[in-house]
Each structure stands twice: as structure tokens, then as C-alpha cells.
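User: Teach me something about this protein's shape.
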Amino acid sequence: MMESEGTDLIEENGLVAGMRAHTRSGTLEIRADLVVGTDGRHSTVPAKAGFEVMDPGAPMDVLWMRISRRPGDPGQTLGHIDAGRFLIMIERGDHWQCAFVIRKGSFAEIQQRGLDAFRADLAMLAPYLRDHVVEIADWKQISLLSVAVDRLRTWYCPGLLCIGDSAHAMSPIGGVGINLAIQDAIATANILASRLREGAVGIDALREVQARREFPTRMTQGLQIFIQNRFISRVLGSNQRLPLPWILKQFQRWPILRRIPARVIGMGFRPEHVKMPEAQITRGS
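Assistant: First, the predicted structure itself:
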């Protein structure tokens, strides 16, 4: 239902029985055998359900922006690192998707220095952008992503299940948040679809979803936190250039080793495949 915002849970006899939503026509009540919270890292569902959030913290925020890509620019470069600065660049055909990593809560300080100083920082990290950064003429062209790495201790209660970023907010490191969200959805469908045809699912089925997906979530967040604490925090907190981490030196020396992080990022610690009978029939036909 477009232009509708979930605002509260409907609870009856200790069971979540649906949701209340705000629409252009007013408040709407939606009854359901199961409510699945999939509304992202700013989901209101966990708070309404009283779920406990575990937050190991994140030392950084990210400034997202687009900068045009020109014929003379190099190919995919990924990262540029200098004392206290970290720029990630992803080639998107005619433009660069740029992520400028900053200390947590320091965006106001950067704005006080002014756009000229910010553009100079970008050009210092990637000199070939010197003529490109003039395109950034207003702070409105820059989006602040407040980085969070957290997860719910329990993802479910009777009649309710949270998956994706609603259950576990991921760091932008590796860009794996969408991967885990889709994998959560596939696992949920595999485990619950046939049971939902028979009526409401019990708490054991919801517990099975979390048991299936908690391991890859914990492993991925653990890796992200390790990179944040051992590398990114040191870069952002230093006034001098730091040596390249040992593991990155090995990737440079032995290119075949790059397949390991590529597999972890691309497929995750527990890949999921659709196993519902309908999908098997469609695939077979």
C-alpha cells in the first residue's frame, strides 16, 4: 500500500495481530497472521515491540555524493587514504559514487570549514578530481549517512518477526547490507511459506528464522567492526600517513587472495537459495 506508514502494533492477548498505519485517508488497521518488519534501520517496529538492541558502536559517518566521471579518469580505484582522510570511489559508468568517511559526529566541523576546504580535501586524495569537484556547489548535494552497526537480541515475538536492517543495521563497509536483507527474506520464505498456508505460525518457526540468519549476521558485523577498529579508526584519528595494513599488502602481492574478500562480500557467510516447491516447479519448466 503506497504512501502508508506503519505507526504502531495491534496487540491482543499477548499476540501481535496486525499494524496501524497512517495513510493520506487517515489511520488504517491491518490485521495479519504475521507482521514482518522490513522497514530498514529506522524501523519503528522493534521499539514498539520492546525488543532489546545490542549496539557495539561505529566510529565513523559517511558523506555520500556523486561526481562526474570523465574519459581521462582511471578505472575502478575503490579507495584513497591519507592522514585523517578516507575516500571510497565506485565507478558507475558516467559518474563516481563517492563515500567520504569522517569521524562520528564531525560533519558540522567540516561544514564550518566551508565547501572550498571540503573540495580541496577530495582533490588532495584523488588529484584527477580537481576539475570535477567544482560540481559540488551546495551541501544539499551531499548526503550524511550516520553509520550504525547493531542488531536485536531477539528478532521475534508471537505474531511478529523482524528481518533485514530492521533486525540488524550493517556498516556500509563492503556494501553488504542489501545482500543480508535479501538472504533474510529468502530464508524467511523457505521456512515460513508452507506453514503460513496452514494458518498462523508458532514461535518455534520464528525462532528458526533467527537461528538460520543470526550466524551470518554476527560474522559479517564482526568483520566490519574489526575493520573499523583496526584500520578506519586509526586512519581517521591520525595526523600522518599510516603504512598499508599487512593484509592489504598481501592482497597486492598475491592477487589470487582477493577472491576471498570478494566471495565473502558477494555471497556472504551463509548464502540462501529459494527452496519453496513453487519455485522448483517454475525453475523446472
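Now, about its shape. The CA atoms of residues 150 and 227 lie 15 Å apart. The radius of gyration is 22 Å. If you'd like, I can walk through any region in more detail.
User: That's plenty for now, thanks!
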